[in-house]
Specification:
This protein has 365 residues and is α/β, with parallel strands linked by helices. It has helices at 14-31, 45-53, 64-72, 87-97, 109-122, 145-157, 178-198, 211-216, 236-241, 272-275, 329-333; strands at residues 9-13, 34-35, 59-61, 77-80, 101-106, 126-132, 161-168, 205-208, 225-226, 251-262, 265-268, 288-290, 297-301, 306-309, 321-326, 338-343, 346-352. The strands form two sheets. Strands 1, 10, 11, 12, 13, 14, 15, 16 and 17 form a nine-stranded mixed beta sheet that branches. Strands 2-9-8-7-6-5-4-3 form an eight-stranded parallel beta sheet. Helix 7 (178-198) links the parallel strand 7 and strand 8. It has eleven helices and 17 strands. Bound molecules: pyridoxal-5'-phosphate. The site of pyridoxal-5'-phosphate (PLP) has 11 residues, from loops.
C-alpha cells in the first residue's frame, strides 16, 4: 500500500470519511438534535464542506484561524468553544460576527464582558454559551444553582452579547467510562437549565458531545446539539474505547522502513513529528496501530523514528511501506501541511490542513 511518493505522509481514505460524516449526520437526525462538528480535528475546507453538505447546523472551532477557515468554506454559523479573552482573538471573532452567526463559549464574567464590549464597539451581534464542567476538570463552572445565579445576572446585564444557552464537554470519557461521561454531560445540562429556567432565563441551546459520548447517546434528553470532532477520522483511541472499528478509521500516517537492526525490530521514518506521541486513554496498548500487522507494536517514538517491535521475527525489508492508525488523529493531522486523498483505494488528490498550528495567520506586533 504505497499512496504517497514521500514519507512520512498523512493519508486519508475519502470513502471512510464520507461514511463517517453520513453516519454521524444520521445519528444526530435520529436523536432530533443539531450537529455542530468540531473543525479542530481536520482544519480542512473540504471536510467542512462535506459536513455542511450532510446537514451540519454550524461548526465548532477553537481558534480564530479555524473560524476564518470555516467562514471561507461556507459555514453560516460558528461556535467558538474556547474563551477568546485576548484582544487579538476577540477582534477576529467579532469581525466574523459581521458576516456569520457567531456564538462563543465562556465561563467567566470577564470573558463575557469583553465579548459584550467588543460587540457593542463593532456594532455586531454575537451570542454566548456558558460552559459547565461535567467532570473533565478543564474549563467550566460546576452545574447547578450557583452557576445559574451568575449566568442569570450576566444575561440580564449584558446588552451587546446575548445569552443563548449552556455547553459542556465530557472529555473524561477518554478515561474509559464513556456511558458515565455521557450521563454526566446530560445531567450537567439538565440541572443547570432547570435552575436557569426557574429564574426566568430561557436556555435555547444545550450543547454536548465528544465523539465517544455522542456515539453513546441513545436519546437526546436535555441535549439540543452535539459537537463531535474526531468522528470524521476515528483513530486507535476510539477503537480502544469501543466507539469505532478499524474499518471506520479514515486517517493513517504512512512511513518507510529505514532500518532492520534486529529480526524483531522495525524502524520506520514516522516518529513523533509525523504521528504525535499521544496516549489519550490508558486503554490503548501502544503509540499507534500498524495496519495489517497485528503482531507489531509501536513501542517508542523519537522525533523522526518509530520503533516497532514484535514477539516473533518479522519479514519487512528496508524500503517497505507501512500505514499506522494514530492514537490521536486530530493531533497527527495538525502535524502535516496536507493529506493525500484516496478514493476507491486510488490517489485522487491532496487536501490542505489549512488552519494548522494554534494560529497560523496571527500577525506579529
Ligand atoms: C469543546 C469541545 N467540544 C467538542 C470536542 C470534540 O471532541 P472529540 O475530539 O472527542 O470529537 C472537543 C475536542 O477537544 C472540544 O474541546
Amino acid at each position: 500500500v504505497t499512496h504517497a511518493a514521500a514519507t512520512p505522509a498523512l493519508v486519508l481514505d475519502r470513502d471512510v470519511l464520507e461514511r463517517n460524516v453520513a453516519r454521524m449526520a444520521d445519528h444526530a437526525a435520529e436523536l432530533g438534535v443539531e450537529l455542530w462538528p468540531h473543525v479542530k480535528t481536520h482544519k480542512c475546507a473540504e471536510v467542512i464542506r462535506a459536513q455542511l453538505a450532510a446537514g451540519a447546523a454550524g461548526v465548532t472551532v477553537a481558534t480564530p484561524a479555524e473560524a476564518e477557515l470555516a467562514h471561507a468554506a461556507g459555514a453560516r454559523a460558528i461556535l467558538v468553544a474556547h474563551p477568546p479573552v485576548q484582544a487579538d482573538r476577540l477582534a477576529r471573532i467579532v469581525a466574523l460576527a459581521a458576516a456569520v452567526r457567531v456564538r462563543v463559549a465562556l465561563d467567566s464574567e470577564a470573558a463575557a464582558e469583553a465579548l459584550d464590549a467588543a460587540c457593542r464597539a463593532a456594532g455586531v451581534e454575537a451570542a454566548w454559551l456558558w460552559e459547565l464542567d461535567c467532570g473533565t476538570g478543564r474549563c467550566g463552572t460546576a452545574p447547578g444553582d450557583a452557576t445559574a445565579e451568575r449566568v442569570a445576572a450576566l444575561a440580564g446585564r449584558l446588552r451587546g452579547a446575548r445569552f443563548e444557552g449552556l455547553m459542556t464537554f465530557g472529555g473524561h470519557a477518554y478515561g474509559g467510562d464513556v456511558r458515565a461521561a455521557a450521563a454526566d454531560e446530560r445531567d450537567a445540562l439538565a440541572v443547570t437549565a432547570a435552575a436557569l429556567e426557574r429564574r426566568g432565563v430561557p436556555v435555547a441551546a444545550r450543547s454536548a458531545g465528544t465523539t465517544p459520548t455522542t456515539w453513546a447517546l441513545q436519546e437526546a434528553g436535555p441535549v439540543t446539539e452535539l459537537r463531535p470532532g474526531n468522528y470524521v477520522f476515528h483513530d486507535a483511541t476510539q477503537v480502544a474505547l469501543g466507539a469505532a472499528g478499524w474499518q471506520d478509521c479514515a486517517l493513517t500516517v504512512q512511513g518507510t522502513v529505514v532500518s532492520r537492526p534486529d529480526p524483531r525490530r522495525v524502524i520506520l521514518d514516522a516518529g513523533s513529528k509525523a504521528l504525535a506521541a499521544e496516549r489519550m486513554t490508558p486503554l490503548t496498548p501502544d503509540l499507534g496501530h500498524v495496519s495489517g500487522h497485528p503482531g507489531l507494536t509501536v513501542e517508542r517514538l523519537y522525533e523522526e523514528h518509530a520503533i516497532l517491535t514484535a514477539a516473533e521475527p518479522v519479514d519487512l525489508p528496508v524500503g517497505a511501506r507501512l500505514a499506522i492508525v494514530p492514537n490521536h488523529a486530530c493531533a497527527a493531522a495538525n502535524l502535516h501541511a496536507r493529506m493525500v486523498v484516496l478514493a476507491g483505494g486510488v490517489r485522487v488528490g491532496e487536501w490542505a490542513v489549512a488552519a494548522r498550528g494554534w494560529d497560523p495567520v496571527a500577525q506579529p506586533d
